[in-house]
Amino acid sequence: MDINIYIADLEAYNGSKLRGAWADATDWDDIEKTVKKISKDGAVEVMIHDSEGYNFGETSDFEAVHALACAIEEHGEA
Known about the structure:
- With 78 residues, the protein is of the alpha+beta class.
- It has helices at 10-14, 28-40, 62-75; strands at residues 4-9, 20-24, 46-52.
């Protein structure tokens, strides 16, 4: 099962603009690369706004989402 997260620029979102990118929630390097890319584009605050494969809700706790995604990938959903 693929578990992906949409990482968004919160300031752009609050200004009614969508700016962000999808990342593999089980790949920490991909998460970090995506956060850095969005931050490089001027974002000060980023957070997860959407997901595929599992509903994490909206959060900025990337480490918890990554750990949960890896557990789901390894063991499946409860």
